[in-house]
Structures are given as structure tokens and as C-alpha cells.
Amino acid sequence: MQIEFKNVTHSYESNNPLSGLGLADVSCKIEDKAFTAIVGKTGSGKSTLVRHINALLKPTSGEIKVGDRVITPETNNKNLKPLRKQVGMVFQFPESQLFEDTVEKDIMFGPKNFGIPEEEAREAAHKMIKVVGLSEDYLDRSPFDLSGGQMRRVAIAGVLASDPETIILDEPTAGLDPVGRKEIMDLFKEQQQNGKTIILITHNMDDVANYAETMMVMHDSRLRAVGTPKDIFNDQDLLDKKLISLPQSAVFAQKLAKKNFKFESLPITINELTAEIKQQIHGE
Amino acid sequence: MKNIISMKNVTYTYPEAETHATDDISLDIQENEWVSIVGRNGSGKTTLTKLIDGLIDCDSGDIFIDGVKIDEDNIWDARKNIGIVFQNPDHQFVGATVEDDVAFGLENQGVQREDMIKRVDHALQMVDMQDYKKRDPQSLSGGQKQRVAIAGVLAIEPKIIIMDESTSMLDPDGRRTVLDLIQNLRKKQSLTVLSITHDIEETQLSDRIIVLKSGKIVKDSDPKGIYDLGPKLIDYGLEEPFTSLVADGLRDELGQEGYVNEEGLIDQLCKLNSKM
Ligand SMILES: Nc1ncnc2c1ncn2[C@@H]1O[C@H](COP(=O)(O)OP(=O)(O)OP(=O)(O)O)[C@@H](O)[C@H]1O
Ligand SMILES: Nc1ncnc2c1ncn2[C@@H]1O[C@H](COP(=O)(O)OP(=O)(O)O)[C@@H](O)[C@H]1O
Ligand SMILES: [Mg+2]
Ligand SMILES: [Mg+2]
User: Measuring from atom 7 of ligand 1, which residue has the nearest CA?
Assistant: First the structure.
């Protein structure tokens, strides 16, 4: 499903002048089956942007197309189920999407809500809990008696269980330990290879470099740049204005460049970095 | 140096849980130390800090804060010295506006109104949230919530600050700013920092890293001692330091293995590059 934003503006509570614009005139296309990362400072509008895709927020002006569905300021809350089935979202704070008294019921809620029979939903729960790195023992526990990282995993399992076509992840790895983070990022990549569209909000530039094909940069409620991670991380103007930070490999390359190395463009992954260093050392 | 926090054989099990969340932990933290607490999800980090703050009572063992053994009667006094920033800031917002929220802790301490306003403003300025004073905390972005939660704790000027992944939703610049801020405060006043984090870069700022696994302390050392563990770090749920990953990719060129710091690695690479 292709997603398209056309001149989308969102102002939170128009009667409260202190809450400024959430989004200002954003236009973009998010490609079907691609892995897109959204980056930007705290409060730049990332969450506001993605909440329009499943109509949790409606635009104040402009429109969003999700497949053949069009969301406008007039869109009401009726008949949103098909859209919500297609577009799954892992929220920034996982607790906000956990509410049942056991983990199993919690993961089953989505599929059941979308009309999947009880037994199938249960199977999905048993499968997904393992996929996110927890054992089946957790299914009987209350989701509120879990550690932060465990809750995060349950929230992710709940979204995957409904098998949405598009998966939106709002800082999904905040709170995961690094080993868990890598496992979960690999899982999202695998989902993409199985034909899903992945939209990831993150502050981890290494994850952007390693996993994303397209990168969008938000700043002050505006979309300031779209491109491949390689191009964006090499965009001097964005760097000068401090709109982006660099992955570790690029930072390291900059340090080498101050000595006797030369980089035509900054490497953004470890593999690119070491390949580049090898070439220069061996004088090819 | 005196111990500001001391735990002796502390064990805690959640009701109905099969395993101990904290398992016979003994630990001394000195005044002014910056200690990182790391470990895999569910290893007991948050539980440890809840015990220190008296939010839960240990099943066995003793906890001393600033030399005083904690019990039911004195926990409220002890807690005045401890500022805790929770893993999810939503759990600590009580005020209808950001400034009320930050003022809440001061009201509890009986700070006079005039002084209170000053301290609230100052705390919000420190985290760069002064423009959001009148906003409902629930309407903030995730990272903004984290900043306000930090301001709320800074305002009460605690002796001990506990941060439970408190910068996890800040952009890299914002994270550095907050960490620098804490670092600078420590230069001006006595402040002990206990920081739970999964960010290896952040641990480099600390004096000491404690690694938890299944409720037990499995490592306790200065950062270098931890990074030297190399690939073993993964067993503890930590990332290998970036320089180790680079060195690993250049094993043939460097002809050695193990942890090298950044400076060392850059030096070696530059030498190799000029030789050939
Ligand atoms: N309220 C609770 N009731 C029962 N068990 C709990 C509760 N809170 C945590 N636990 C369990 O205690 C263990 C330690 O949890 P804790 O929250 O201390 O972990 P943590 O190290 O902070 O993890 P994370 O990195 O995921 O935040 C986990 O196995 C968790 O499931
Ligand atoms: N419910 C809300 N009411 C009013 N303002 C909001 C609300 N949610 C977010 N905002 C504001 O909109 C801006 C963008 O927020 P958000 O999209 O959450 O940022 P982020 O890029 O960190 O995800 C911020 O200034 C934030 O304070
Ligand atoms: Mg957000
Ligand atoms: Mg925790």
C-alpha cells in the first residue's frame, strides 16, 4: 500500500495558542514494502506525522492517502477498522497499549478485534511471544507486572499478531537491551522481506544506516529532507544546521579524515567503514 | 569518602513470582559517584532502584541511605534526598501543567512560594523546557516528557539522583545536553548519580559500571574493566564498544584482538596508512 501525504497540517487544540503546530504542510510519499526511517529532534513532529497514517489524528488541512483510502479533515471515526487492520502501530510508550489482565489476552485482542477466530488468535499469541524473545511462561502474567523492556516486547507481539500490511514503530527499541534491540530490528527487517511496509521512528542513527532504505528528517513540524541514508548523512547543509546526527561509522571516518585518511563520502555502516579503510591501507 | 548508599544481602521477590527479582545483593555506593547500572531486560535494575527509594520493602537484608538504616519510620525522610526519574515519565506526572508538576516535589518539601517559582523556572530552563510551562504534561512529545521529569527531580536538589533510562527518547544532541548538565551539576554540588542505561556511550561518563543478571551483580568495575570483556559483553546484554567492532573487521590489518580505545585505534590505523 502506498502512503501519500498532501500538504498536511495539524494543529493540536486550535483553541490553545500555546500548543503550536504538530505538522506544517508536509507532503511526501512512503513507498510500498519499503523500510522508511523517520528521524528528528524531540518534539519535531515525528509521532504526529505517523499518527495520521492510521487516522488516530486527522489533518487540520490537507489529506493522506493510504492505499485507496483517503483521510481528510472531515474523516470521521466510523468505519476505521479496515484501515487499522492494515496499519499496525507500536506506540512510543508501550504501556499505553496494554490493558488486558494477561499477556495472552493482550496479544489476542488485536486479531480477535479484527475478526480472527479465538483459537487462531491464541495460536498467534503463542507464536508471537516467542518471536519477540519471551518464553510462553509470560502469557499467563499480567502485562503490568513486567519490566519495561518486557512490556515493550509484548506490545510489539500484539501488533504483529494482527498481521498488518504496514507496521509503524514509534521508537520501538527505546528500553530494549542492545542484544534485544538487534533481535527486534532484525525481526522488522524480516517482516519487510516478507512483504510488509515498515515505518520506523528512531534516534538510533546506526539502526537507520543498517536497516532503512529511505530516511525522512523532521524539524520544527516540517519535513526537511527525504533520501537514502547514504545521501542524507552526507548532506553538509543538514549537518551544518544540526538537523541530523551521524552514525558511529561516519563519526569515526570524520576523525580519520582529520589525519591521513580521505573519504569521498562518509561511510555509514561498519562494513562500509572497514572496507574503505582496507582499501586505503592497501593503497588500491 | 563515605557511603551514601549501602545494601547488605538484599533479596526481593515480587508477590507470586517464582524467582527473586533481586537476589542477595550487597553494594556500596560512595558519595558523588556516578554509577551506571546495566543488564538485560528483566535483570532487576528497576527493582533495585525501587528498593533504594523504599517504594518496595526488601524481604531480607538491610539498606542504608547516608548512614541511616532504612525502616518504615524514616523512609519518608530518606526519600527527600533521593530524586528518581522513572522509566516511563507518564507515571510521575501529577500536575495539570508542566510548572505545577515540577513544583509538586517542592510543595511536598514545604518550600516557600517565592523560592518555589524561582526553582521551578530554573529547573525548566536547565532542560530547555521553559517555553512549555503552561502545557499539560500529557500533551508533550515523549522526549519532552522525559525532560520535564528530569526538571522535576532537579528542582528538589536531591543528594542522590536515580535515572531509569531517562534519556532513552531524547535525540542524540538532547541526550548529550542532559548528561552534560548532570555532569556539571556534580562539579558544583555533591550529587550521587545512579543511572540505568542501555547506552554504552553513556556508561563511559560514569565512574563505575554494575552489571546485573537475574537479580545478581555479576560484574562491578570501572568502565575500562567492563569494555575489556569484549565479545563477552553480549552475555550481559551489552553492546560491544564500537572500536572493538571496527578492530574486529580489520583483524588481518591490525594483527591483534581485544579492546582498544578510540585514540589507540586511530593511531594504529594512521600508522598503517602511512607505511604502505
Ligand atoms: N510489579 C511486578 N510484579 C511481578 N514481577 C515483576 C514486577 N515488576 C517487575 N517484575 C519482574 O521482576 C524482574 C526484574 O524486573 P525489573 O523491572 O527490575 O527489570 P529491569 O532490569 O529494570 O528490566 P528493563 O531493562 O526491561 O527495564 C523481571 O523478571 C520482571 O518480570
Ligand atoms: N496532544 C497534544 N496536544 C498538544 N500538543 C501536542 C500534543 N502532542 C504533541 N504535541 C506537540 O506537537 C509537537 C510535536 O510532537 P510529536 O509529534 O509528539 O514529536 P516527536 O517528534 O518527538 O514525536 C511537540 O511540540 C508537542 O509538544
Ligand atoms: Mg514521539
Ligand atoms: Mg526497568
Answer: A145
